[in-house]
Please model this.
Amino acid sequence: MALIRPHHFRPNPQTAADNAFQSTADHDVSTEAYDVCTRVAEQLREAGVRVHLFEDETHEHPDSVFPNNWFSTHAGGRVAVYPMYAANRRGERRQDVIEMLKTEYRVQEVIDYSGLEPDDLFLEGTGAMVLDHVSRIAYAVRSKRCDPVLVERFCTVFGYEPVVFDAVDTHGVPIYHTNVMMCIGTDIALIGLDAIVGDARRDEIARRIRETGRTLIPLTAAQVAAFAGNALEVRGHGGERILVISETGHRSLTEEQLSVLSESCRILVLDVAPIELAGGSVRCMIAGIHLDPR
Model:
């Protein structure tokens, strides 16, 4: 996986308007965020996860800690690069990261959608889409950062079935990224079902998830707000399944929910509180690598 360690992290004023998960920092949290990223990389490596850690020493990209929004990697040697909604996020795209992938892994093709930004078409990677790599389904909440036309285009090229839906928080504000309300693991799925607009659509998505053989764990609105859905299953030593989740999200889960999760994988709790001020958590920080190593 790839992580970006920011030297000048701060909540992004350009994303605050449509990110209801975002908060305002009452002090400079850049040093705390740097230290958090250092610890996350160390803990993941200790668990047996291969981590590529990049530095961002610039001042211009407050959200660079969230690389999963601008690129994703896929079996068969393909990489996607995405168009970003906020203008000051577009510079997060880095050629050195792409070159590392080409050097360390077998990359056959890089498909770059970023040229669609002047047309106001946006699709912020695996923030906008939660991908079921096994059943080949792309779940996507419609938003300013997730254009259904681009979801369809991505799915046609990469071989997924698009499942696009509307979802809102308790105040009726659209969920800005699908991955803050939904996590698909090998045999579990965390999802804020109540956020999905329309009873029929909600039931349909729950049914689709269960049909893939997964145990569905519904999240309350409070748990979604605490980033319980912004988790990610990774592989550690010997292929061990590990669910990485933030302390904030972990604290919000019930004993029953944690018991079900523990039957599926080991839970690795990471303290990323300073990062969560920017409206994203552990899953947002991780750009997964699904490529064969050289």
About this structure: The chain has ten helices and 14 strands. The mean pLDDT is 96.
